[in-house]
Structure formats: structure tokens, C-alpha cells
Amino acid sequence: MKPQDIEKRSFEIITKELGARTFPVGIAEVVKRVIHTTADFDYAENLAFSPDVIEQAKAALCNGATIVTDTNMALSGISKPSLTKLGAKALCLMADPDIAREAKERGVTRAVVSMEHAARLDGPLIFAVGNAPTALIRLHELIGKDEVKPALVIGVPVGFVNVVEAKELFIGGKTPYIIARGRKGGSNVAAAIVNALLYQLIRREGF
């Protein structure tokens, strides 16, 4: 089978196995792509979306948003051709030597420092966090101080320490969010959510 045929068939299987569980347009594409990436149907229940988040995220991407990831793995998984077509961009500051040096001097994680530096970037910002709960916690603090106003926070770190608590900081808040409640997540999930948004826009714009 050709790659596009495999993907099409995979989504058909996902839709069938979801059965009676349906989702609004826009959200459905995100949920199904995350399941496609992970083969884990728990995401049909644990992904949480703030009101109108899909359209808000699309608007930011159409306005040249910068997507900030907390791992190079997530960055590598985001569709670069789609970003180029939309005039958006993605970056990860975690491997920057200055970030590493500052984090060591301050005794904090590189994820914390990378969020602080990214908050100073111009234009709409989308944060896609798939690994470091400390990134989410610091981001929430920066939002509370009005030092950054993200167009979207994708909060899907995976793990056991402070993961659940970091995610729950955003649930019900004013910042647009897509959060994977509980312990599950990962860089691949963060990239899948971004791609689901990008692909919807590509189809809508007719690229």
C-alpha cells in the first residue's frame, strides 16, 4: 500500500473503533491524529479543549505564529512544508548554549529558561510542551505576570512527577489550551496536535 493509502485506512479504522463517540469539527481531527500517532484510544477521553480553541489556533497560524516546542523531537515531527505554506515557523531553544549556561547558573531546568526567552519573541506564540512539566509551570507563571499571552498552549508532557499538576494549571483558565489530562503525552503527541491544526488549514486554504 502507498503511504497515503495506509494513513487513510488507519483513520477509517480509528473512526470505526471510536464507534458512537463523536467530536466537533476541528476537535475530531486533533483527537484522531493523536490516536493515529499513539494507537491509544484513551486520548479520546483525556484530551481537553478550551472553548473555540481550534479557530483561535488557526487564526494565530494564519497570522505567522511561532510554535515553541520543549524538545527537538517535537520540533522535528512538525510538518515543515505546512509551516512554510502558512508563513508560520517553529523552533526549540533547549539546545541553545546560552540557555544551557543560564539554566546551570540559576539552578533551574533548561525548559524553564527556554520558556522565559521564548516569551519575549514577537508575534503570536503557540507553546507545544510534550516533555517538561517545568516548562508548563513556568509558562503559567509568566502568563500570570502578563509577561506573555500565548495564542495557544498545548500541554501534553508525559511522566509521573508534577505532570498532572502542571497540566491542570491551565484547565478552565483564560489561555487557549489543548491539554492531555493525566500522565500520558509526549513529544510525538505535541507534534501530532500541531500537525492536525496545520493540515486542517492547508485543506481549507486549498494548498
Characterization of the model:
- Residues 5-199 form the Cobalamin biosynthesis precorrin-8X methylmutase CobH/CbiC domain.
- The protein has 11 helices and 6 strands.
- With 207 residues, the chain is α/β, with parallel strands linked by helices.
- A 6-stranded mixed sheet has the order 1-6-5-4-2-3, with helices on both faces.
- It starts with a helix and ends with a helix.
- α1 (3-18) packs across α2 and α8 (110-118) runs parallel beside α9 (133-144).
Helicity level, as a percent range? 40-55%
Distance between the termini: 25 Å
**Judging from the principal axes of the Cα atoms, what is the shape?**
globular
CATH architecture: 3-Layer(aba) Sandwich
Question: DSSP strand (E) fraction?
Answer: 5-15%
CATH superfamily: Cobalamin biosynthesis CobH/CbiC, precorrin-8X methylmutase
Q: How many β strands by DSSP?
A: 6
The low-confidence runs, each spanning 5 or more residues with pLDDT under 50, are none
Taking Cα atoms only, what radius of gyration do you get, to the nearest Å? 17 Å
CATH class: Alpha Beta
Major sheet: 6 strands, mixed
Question: How are the strands of the largest sheet arranged?
Answer: 1-6-5-4-2-3
Q: Determine the CATH topology.
A: Rossmann fold
Taken together, the total number of domains comes to 1
Secondary-structure class = alpha/beta
- SSE order: HHHEHEHHEHHEHEHEH
Number of helices, where a helix is a run of at least 4 consecutive DSSP H or I residues: 11
Mean pLDDT: 96
